[in-house]
Amino acid sequence: MHYAKANPGDDLSPRARLHRRMTHLRKLGGLLPAALLLLGLGACRAAADAPPAPPPPEVSVIEVQMEPVTLRDELPGRVAPLRLAEVRARVAGVVLKRSFTEGSEVKEGQTLFVIDPAPLKAAVDSAAAALAKGQANLGQAEARAKRATALVQEGLVSREAYDDALAAQAMAHAEIAQARSALSLARLNLGYATVTAPISGRIGGALVTEGALVGQAEATPLAVIQQIDTVYVDIKQPASQLTRLRRAALDGAPGGEAGQHAAILVLDDGVEHPEKGELLFSGISVDPGTGEVTLRARFPNPSRLLLPGMFVRVKLAKRVDQAALTVPQQAVGRDGGGNATVLVVQPDGKTAVRQVQTGGVDHDRYIVTSGLNAGDKVVVEGHQKVAPGAEVRAVPFTPTPAGSAAAPAPAPAASAAR
């Protein structure tokens, strides 16, 4: 017969069993702090292994300062050549040769066309023969007058015959003068058979070809030459603004007679012409129909970039603001309402969007009339890296060297403002 094995604790009294349980719990309690310590060490190790927080993004800023800026009016203008000459045929004949390349630069006195000189040479020979005949007649008339003078003193010829001899001598002298004039004209016309450039400049296309008969009834136009190494620009301006412009000139502002570099020319692509212009005040009259005056500025054009007939914009100085605030154009964005905005770095190192008012452009900078103060730090580059309220690391802005690609105008301030 088999009996179940008795549990060793079954024969313990209730007090003994309670003591055993308490001892077991005390052992477990000693292990708990160690377990918690191990968990803490693991958390510290995990925190130590975590990557450090990234540094604030870097942005390029300028510190806005007050500076003198010339305020300018921008007006439409049209380019005109410094000199323009129509080349015309001055004698009649057939064109034998064209001696220039169309669209090229020609020098004053350079041969352009050759007209058939044969008829003109014949005219020279005829005039020379007429002069020789007149000289022979003059010799005969002088001899007769000499004899008549001697005979009239002796009473051998009448006074009338003597007067006729003197008149014949005078007529012979007149015929000589006429023949010499005709010979000079014939030689001059022969010279006109070689058509030369009256001025230096750029010549256009030939208006006639070889074989054309020119100068038959009128002076036929052959070509046009325009001097464009220096050009004029004719500018329309309201007459009411002319007095202000003259006053600026008298005050010595770079906007009139006192300034040799008074005008800035802007091409149709927005790029400024590298050469400054001189504003001319002579010959100004008011158009009674429009109330406008036409001003003329003179610009050097060594690269021949400006061509007659081109429409351009001309900036004329109106006054100088001695305490203007300016920012680079790439620092200005637009919000959803079309308002101009900039991103500024505050004293706490965080960015904020600031709405501004602009009052014109000075070269590649906007003139700010409100919204900024001297000393404000405006973000010029790095808009794409930050949002308003973000902490940043500001570094001084370095302008792009001339000839390098310009940085595109940013728009994060606009999106942030929305």
Automatic annotation (TrEMBL):
Residues 125-193 form the Multidrug resistance protein MdtA-like alpha-helical hairpin domain. The gene is mexC. Belongs to the membrane fusion protein (MFP) (TC 8.A.1) family. Residues 230-317 form the Multidrug resistance protein MdtA-like beta-barrel domain. Residues 399-418 are annotated as: Disordered. Its main location: other. One of its GO terms (cellular component) is cell envelope. The lineage of its organism: Bacteria, Pseudomonadati, Myxococcota, Polyangia, Polyangiales. This is MexC family multidrug efflux RND transporter periplasmic adaptor subunit. Residues 324-385 form the Multidrug resistance protein MdtA-like C-terminal permuted SH3 domain. It comes from the Bacteria. InterPro entries: MdtA-like_b-barrel (IPR058626), MdtA-like_BSH (IPR058625), MdtA-like_C (IPR058627), MdtA-like_HH (IPR058624), RND_pump_MFP (IPR006143). NCBIfam families: RND_mfp. Residues 83-226 form the Multidrug resistance protein MdtA-like barrel-sandwich hybrid domain. It is found in: Cell envelope. GO terms for biological process: response to antibiotic. SUPFAM superfamilies: HlyD-like secretion proteins (SSF111369). GO terms for molecular function: transmembrane transporter activity. Residues 400-418 have a biased composition (Low complexity).
